[in-house]
Amino acid sequence: MRVERDAATGVAVVTLDRPERHNALDLATATELGSCWREFRYDNTVRAVVLTGAGEQAFCTGVDRAAEVPQPSSPYSIDDPLLTVGPKANDLWKPVLAAVNGMACGGAFYLIGECEFVLAAEHATFFDPHTTYGMVSAYEAVAMAQRMPFGEVARMALMGTAERVSARRAYEVGLVSEVVAGAGVRAAAVAAAETVASFPTAAVQGTVRAVWSAREAARAQAMAHAPHLIALGNAPPADQSALFASRERGAPFRIR
Question: Is residue 12's pLDDT more than 90?
Answer without folding.
Answer: yes
